[in-house]
User: Fold these one by one.
Assistant:
Number 1:
Amino acid sequence: MAEFLMPSLGADMQSGKLLEWLVKPGDVVKRGQVIAVVGTEKGDIEVEVFEEGVVRALLAAPGAEMPVGAPIAVIEAVGEAEKVAAPAAMPAAEAKTPPAPTPTVKAAEPVARAANGHRIRVSPLARKLAAELGVDLSQVQGTGPQGAIDKADVERAAAALKAQREAQQVVPAPAAEAPPPSAKPMDKSSAEFQASMRRAIALAMARSNRDIPHYYLETRINMAKALAWMEAENLKRPIQNRLLPAVLLIKAVAKALTRVPQLNGYWVDDALQVSEAIHIGFAIALRQGGLVTPAIHHADLKSADELMETLRDLIMRTRAGRLRSSELTGATITVTSLGDMGVEKVFGVIYPPQVALVGFGKVTEEAWVENGMIGVRPVVHATLAGDHRATDGRTGAEFLDVLNRLLQEPEALFNA
Amino acid sequence: MVATQTFNKEDLRQLILNQLRGLAPEADLNYLRPYDDIRETLEIDSFDFLNFLIGLAKETGVEIPEKDYGKVSTLEGLINYLLAHM
């Protein structure tokens, strides 16, 4: 038996409102299956399970606002012998009533849930690390092969947990925000939604500027070759399969990170934890204001078509307010591209606990000097905001240099 | 596939406005004048602009290549481009 907890969908999340159950007691669930929809500041998120099992009880009624870490369902792992004594306080049958609201938001502490045994695939290193960091493996979303939990997943979970606890210490009065669950039926009004998204952004960004000593670097990149390659590529494709420049930029960033990995990861417990996996959070602005940065998982391993497809899918679902939990928590670095708004460069604020943010401005024609000749080229200004606790300017400079060189050989960019 | 259908200028205008309405539901399209830059006026990003062109291609059969994006940045330019290429 495992309690399924309200997941933390970002460092700034305190609680989520259960909007809808997509399963009922008795249902068999598979790894990665979406079982519920939870309303957060970032829209309605589809929550996935990461274990096979049978739903035994739903502990939160639709409409209930549940703190992060509070049990919302009981899911019995497949094949798990029923020998373990059922947790004492199991509510009678499929209680649809919301549990007594956990008054303090303490529940987020890493309860040492018996995650051993059942079907979670965990690398030995990840398991060891989880024990050290006090991470509950049953709550970790694996992004390795076949959903296995790897070292990076555990680090990410630990970082999120820590950030979340810190955030809770900072927030002055969540108390005022805790209306009795199930009071009113779902649907935050859009003004309310806006306000809560603003608060979430305010919290994360204020923390970033308070805690992270940013350094900034900028370089100009000649995009002539990259754009020519893309145009030629797009001529061969039907219009629905056309690529956007963002695909090249994301791929180049991901590939550059494989060579300068120190910028990809988290700052946790006064130390840099480099992530092996490269999950790029791509900033997507919402038309009504605010932004969300869902993760493009393993961006370094994706082809141009896969990246375009992922991007398309993420943008649509971000705007429709339907992201999955793994997409909101996974990013190991953020890329923001404000070129569409006409600005030439963007100096970003790092999203903690990440340690870097890469910004791209608009591609504009600029005077370009090369071999003693002056000419006109399409140019993009790439910037790097780095966490000076984690890396120094030299590392950042190396990254931008590699990024530039990768974009000069666009045909090689998508070769493995 | 749809290219057999014939469109006049007004048909195209309506068709374009319909597509735009889907992308920028909150915008008042009455304010979009014939020579305004569509993307700037309605704050349409490159992703939505591509979707817009995909939608137009479905309706008119015309796939506008990237090199011609400069010619279709306004309502008037776009209508004339489509008329010439259908």
Number 2:
Amino acid sequence: MKEPDTKNTTASPLPAGLVRPWEASPFSSNEQRLSVTQWLLTLAIMLLLFVSLPRLWPLIEDFNPDPDYRMPYTLSDDYWLYSQYCQWAAAHSDVMVVGDSVVWGHYVPPDESLSHHLTGLTGKTTQQTFANMGIDGIHPAAMAGLLEYYGQAISGKKVILSFNPLWMTSKKHDLQTDKEFRFNHPRLVPQFTPRIACYTESIPNRLRIVMERRVELLQWSSHLSTAYLDKMDLSTWAMAHPYDSPLGAMPFTLPQPKETTEQHPSWNARGGAAQAFPWVDLETSVQWQFFKRAINTLRDRSNTVFVVIGPFNEHMMTDKSLGQYRLIKAGVETWLQENKVPYSMPAPLPSDLYADASHPLAAGYALLAQQLCDDASFKSVILSPAEPD
Amino acid sequence: MHFHTWTFLPFFLIAYGVYLGVRTSRFANLWIVIVSYVFYGWWNPLYLAIIAYSTLIDYAVLACMVKSSRKKMWLSVSIVNGLFLLGFFKYGLFVTENINHLLSAVGSDYALARPERLLPLGLSFYVFKSMGYLIDCYRGHVARETNLIRHAAFVSFFPILLAGPIERAANLLPQFRDPRRVTPQDMADGLSLFVVGLFKKVALADCLALYVNKIYASPESFQGPALILATVAFAWQIYFDFSGYTDMARGVARAMGFRIMLNFNHPYLATGLGDFWRRWHISLSTWFRDYVYIPLGGSRGGPLFTARNVLLTMVVSGLWHGAAWTFVVWGALHGLGMVVTRALERHPFYRDKCPRLAKQIGVFAFVTFAWIFFRASTWSDACLIVTRIFTSGLSDPACPLLFIALMGGVLIYQFMCDSSLRRYLMTGSVRVSLTVLMLLYVILFSASGGQAFIYNQF
């Protein structure tokens, strides 16, 4: 390889033997001086590593989801893993069920979630399998980002997209406040435009997030940190485990979720009272704008999108609040009809099948799955053997 | 805006892209001034007024100086102006607190109001650069720059604006006058320097900072081993932090076709305190040598006179670093160390028989001990740390093995650089491999926070 030219390069000729003072200063105290050729070689190696490392990693990391798999709560913000799971689910499942904690099954084990019951119900007839693509705690603004940047594998599939009105129950949930608000999954929301006033991340960090979305190696690095280093960078992890080897912390097997078997009581059994939610207007709702964006992202990838609205816990609302909620539902329905998005609006579940304002209990999921399977639109779009759009 | 943050990347790509287009035109220096002001103003646009003020005053003073027969008077105006800026922004609080202590000691109820001002980033660096230029002009060592844009570019040149090197006018100003040539090798050199600096900062300095900050935040909670390890870690942290900044600054400048002086040269391999200061923050130590030590008389008098000059120079150097008594003590310790090692080096046994490694270990131990006063938040903390190092018991320091391995790895590399093994480091395959490893480490494992550089506060 050609070594760097250590002779001085001058802008204008000097008498022989004379060196300009600033050119007499040594290059550096170390030997890390690369020639142009060496830099080109370095960049080529880096490019190779950028492409190959995240792709080779799945060969050594043990990731074998079962049909009821859902992203473990502790790995909720491991978006690289989510993209891997999308690839797996796209190859192994017929229908992707996408949404927040309602789809994920916040109060129930994986074998009681909506996707599990849908698979169970349709298994006897159309033999379709439903993948639980929910993320606990995600909201529409983050969901739109998740699908856009990490859900590319969901393409040409049938997708059930859950619309949870919970995110419109207040200006805070709807990300409309000007005051800083630490919401979930900030790495998935738009970093610059459209501006979210309550999001106050520094510009360097926003730029890093934007880079991470586009560079898979950075996503993979984030995966290592989330999955093995307790969501810390290497130095912070070393501080917490001073005598441990970082390599020892990577067993190449993803942490298994600690699933609860505890039966959660219903909201009214816990003495819950009817609430007057300060609903936001559909027209001005930030989360609704992002939900529409998520639909468009999915449709742009040739997916057949089917929206499930709610069912929100209407028993938990005051009459006035219920009236506002119905207006929102009507508005959502109108938009879906206008844009030819098939949907289902299941009837509210019995009161004691809700754990809180939006999450069904295990029996609630079973009933909801049954309601969907009985829905004509659902049957024709999701259960029919027709090819996707 | 710091070199190691993501904000710098788009800034530099735009600044550099345009620069490459205009570098041979008459707009090159104007573009440098514009991007330098954006770079500096990014942190706080209000402080652009200070650098603009400093630039204009010194430009005007120089114009008056060359025409006037009272050159010394005009030089004094500039020096007083520079010292006023430093005093107002940097030492105001220190002076006020000390006056209030004195007033309180004599039983007075009166107290001066505490000035609540932020120290503009890099103030000490560009004030010293400008001051050195005026003194050189006064001495006739350099010619006055008549072009205001070129003068402003010299003062505000963004790669070295925030933390030096404090480049001399004789070196830097002519480079703004010459037609600029940027060769592919300049770009490669710039990248080489930048990557090493980035690695030093984000992979080494910021990593060690975690341990140092934890221990120094509450030294009363830790015992000897942890305090010793934290102090050694700080010795390396500040070296990686500052030399990392310098490498990046020199790399950015190099990519733009500028040659900036070397500021660090393996200081922890020094065999004496004088040698240490010829390797550590070279631009500052030579500045003090030329503009403080030599004017004080240097070594032209007897040993006592020389010792006085060394001590005075080092105390002023300590005060330059920070407005606190801990910095004064740190400077004084170095002054004393220099006087002692100068005396030792005159002794044939020490000079010829004492093993080089023993000298290096001795200097490192002394410098590391002095860092306690530099790093401690207060004088009482510094005393507490020194006391506890020698009197407290032994306990698990919980210093990550990873950090010790990193420090050890760099030390081995430096010893190799300084020995006959150097030839192995010079092979292309070693260079490329090390660069790939550094880049991978920075991308995959470094913290994303982007901690500020230690020397920016000076």
